[in-house]
From TrEMBL, chains A, B:
Residues in coiled coil: none
EC number assigned by the record: 2.3.1.35, 2.3.1.1
Subcellular location, record wording: Cytoplasm
Protein name: Arginine biosynthesis bifunctional protein ArgJ
Enzyme class per UniProt: transferase
PANTHER family: ARGININE BIOSYNTHESIS BIFUNCTIONAL PROTEIN ARGJ (PTHR23100), ARGININE BIOSYNTHESIS BIFUNCTIONAL PROTEIN ARGJ, MITOCHONDRIAL (PTHR23100:SF0)
Taxonomic source organism: Alkalicoccobacillus plakortidis
The keyword Cytoplasm is assigned to this record: yes
Site (Involved in the stabilization of negative charge on the oxyanion by the formation of the oxyanion hole): 123-124
Pathway where this protein functions: Amino-acid biosynthesis; L-arginine biosynthesis; L-ornithine and N-acetyl-L-glutamate from L-glutamate and N(2)-acetyl-L-ornithine (cyclic): step 1/1; Amino-acid biosynthesis; L-arginine biosynthesis; N(2)-acetyl-L-ornithine from L-glutamate: step 1/4
Entry's Gene Ontology molecular function annotations: L-glutamate N-acetyltransferase activity, acting on acetyl-L-ornithine as donor
Residues reported to bind substrate: 160, 186, 197, 283, 406, 411
SUPFAM superfamilies in the cross-refs: DmpA/ArgJ-like
Function as written in the Swiss-Prot or TrEMBL entry: Catalyzes two activities which are involved in the cyclic version of arginine biosynthesis: the synthesis of N-acetylglutamate from glutamate and acetyl-CoA as the acetyl donor, and of ornithine by transacetylation between N(2)-acetylornithine and glutamate.
């Protein structure tokens, strides 16, 4: 996009990654937690990075989340983030907590940092102790690099039942300087607690204080990561971390900065892209479902209704069955607990209007089935005709493979 | 049980039905809404019966629910209840409402009753107009009887995707008189809105005023029908109706009557039995899951935690996979929103303790798998060690057949 005057444009960076923002290196290796695939990765920043993070709302939180929160509390900065997959280090009590400290200390030593500049996180099976010797041996082999391949290696190292890596990168201009936001995620089942699930790591080179970054991330998370559902479960290990290196040399971003909106939108686009990639790769999924609700009492209720629809097993099964089943959609609306006028709801599936003012309207089943067969993303639009609230949510269809994966995973 | 002094005993009546309590007749016929199977039924009482009812909390309510509520409002009594399956008469607007009135009026005429002593209800596909000519023609053929076969005919007439009929009967003694409570239900998917789902009709010969009966039913529903889940969806047509003929000739039951507890328990046993039968016949289910939560802050939170566990797709999939996956159970506990101590939770599956004070304990996977393979009912017990609250919930496993049934139902 270059250093033009169009500061408010947000552009997708093709093949961009967590290494596109200035100041970051990454790596991913096989440390022996999985049989063959990569299972240990790290992101390092040249300088202590401003950090923001959001954590699972599950009252059962895994040990590494506690240790990471302690790290961040010291000076709201981190310089390294180390992740293992295959084992969540959750429900592992005092020993699990000690293992997380050991993992953090080994990483700090490897990278020559104080402990509190290191965040640790784990994803995988719950209730088994971390094979800490393998983890520390692996950490001693971590050699982050800024080559393109390093981002991919990191992406691979954090996967569990995911079928693809998930990454994104967007750029904008702040104070005439290019600011990049790169991100990576793992999810697959959103959420299968046994895999201790949704993780996302975002890098940026923006100059921004932790408190403002946290404000933006919390707000954006509510509109993106918190709007996806695969099975409605919330894991013990969910975490999103944003690191800001500050090497873009813009004036510090605050909500009153003239380019705040551009930065906010760039971060939001990155998070929305990762969210959609996670939903699309839901366990066993064949389709991404996007629900858009307009006319709600407010944006929050719109999001709640959208999420209720996209989380309904019946709607999800119908999408798998390529069935334009608006009856299940209106039912989900009816039990969302939000303000509705039961006599005045519109529903369309793709370009096919199926319900208008709560009255079924004749539509071509053939056309609707063709849409649901051909498209990879199924769009469900609802107008509640109550007020002006708008919101989106994303999910996936419920398939035989979801049952197969989750009936068979642990054994 | 006879007229003994053990007034507080509640006994199951083998092969008892809605016709066991004195004063009731029933029938079920094929009226042409389904291709071959029975699709129209009625329960009639010799006298106007005290009535209590609970309805779906879905904001979208089907037309017959509105008409039934109007009937009951007049004098809190009904004498006839007419049900059709195959079509829910939901989301059908003004025409649907007129159809429900027509259905009520035709029934009143057939049985020689004023309109307001007739309740009507429908279950089946949403958003299609009731074939009202077939329904009224069918009503003119209804000839209720008190023979045993008549209860079965009624039971069959209200089914949709259910694989079995569901009925129960319990008795107790009130004032030295035998009081019976009989019940019938349909469910299968709890709930698949497109089938407009959970219906239950209960008869009793107890002498009891509507207001006291309503009080008992509302309280019991919270501990029984509201504690089952197949897929978490709540239909537009859910309804439970209790009719009390008063022919047992006991002194009127009120909460201060010495045998109130016995009657309450009898009604509760009947409702719990029907609830479990509905959960066990969940779409595609191979197992009934019963979750018992003790040590919660109060009974309400215990029930909420139990329902969160039994409603988790991951727990349901694990049961199908015969996997003693306590990690998914503790996750569900963690996001229940109830008061817990994350460090002090016990979980057992059947006789196998899997977690004690939130620490995984070594158990025989073989023994656990054998239990989950051999038993038809899988019992999950949780102790939260917070206070004394206790509650139960019921559900079923999530299977390939659930997906098959719901991906393919409408088309």
């Amino acid at each position: 996009m270059g250093m033009t005057k169009q500061t408010n444009q947000v552009e997708l960076v093709e093949k961009g990654s967590i290494l596109t923002p200035k100041g970051f290196k990454a790596t991913g290796i096989h440390a022996g937690l999985k049989r063959k695939r990569k299972d240990l990765g790290a992101i390092i920043c040249e300088v202590p990075a401003s950090v923001a993070a959001v954590y699972t709302l599950n009252q059962i939180q895994a040990a590494p989340l506690k240790v990471t929160q302690e790290s961040i509390a010291v000076e709201q900065k981190i310089q390294a983030l180390v992740v293992n997959s295959a084992n969540a280090n959750a429900c592992t009590g005092e020993r699990g907590l000690q293992d997380a400290y050991t993992m953090r200390h080994a990483s700090a030593k490897q990278f020559g940092l104080p402990d509190h500049l290191v965040a640790v996180t784990s994803t995988g099976v719950i209730g088994e102790y971390l094979p800490i010797d393998k983890v520390t041996a692996g950490i001693s082999q971590l050699e982050p690099s800024d080559l393109d391949g390093a981002a991919i290696e990191f992406n691979e190292a954090i996967l569990t039942t995911d079928t693809t890596t998930k990454q994104t990168c967007f750029q904008t201009v702040v104070d005439g300087k290019t600011v990049s936001v790169g991100g990576v995620a793992k999810g697959s089942g959103m959420i299968h607690p046994n895999m201790a699930t949704m993780l996302s790591f975002v890098t940026t080179d923006a100059v921004i204080e932790s408190s403002h970054l946290q404000h933006a991330l919390s707000s954006i998370t509510n509109q993106t990561f918190n709007r996806i559902t695969v099975d409605g479960d919330t894991s013990t290990n969910d975490m999103v971390v944003v690191m800001a290196s500050g090497l873009a040399e813009n004036q510090p971003l605050t909500p009153t900065h003239p380019d705040w909106a551009a930065f906010y939108e760039t971060l939001k686009q990155a998070c929305e892209s990762l969210s959609k990639q996670i939903a699309r790769d839901g366990e066993g999924a064949t389709k991404l479902i996007e629900v858009q609700v307009s006319g709600a009492l407010n944006d929050e209720e719109a999001g709640k209704v959208a999420k209720q629809i996209v989380g309904s097993d019946l709607v999800k099964s119908a999408v798998f069955g390529k069935d334009a089943n608006w009856g299940r959609i209106i039912c989900a609306i009816g039990y969302s607990g939000c303000t509705i006028d039961p006599e005045n709801i519109d529903i369309s599936i793709g370009n096919t209007a199926t319900l208008k003012n709560s009255q079924p309207i004749v539509f071509s089943e053939e056309q609707a089935t063709a849409y649901m067969t051909d498209e990879e993303t199924i769009l469900i639009q609802v107008n509640l005709h109550v007020a002006e609230g708008f919101g989106k949510a994303w999910g996936c269809d419920l398939t035989y493979d979801y049952v197969r994966i989750n009936a068979g995973y642990r054994t």
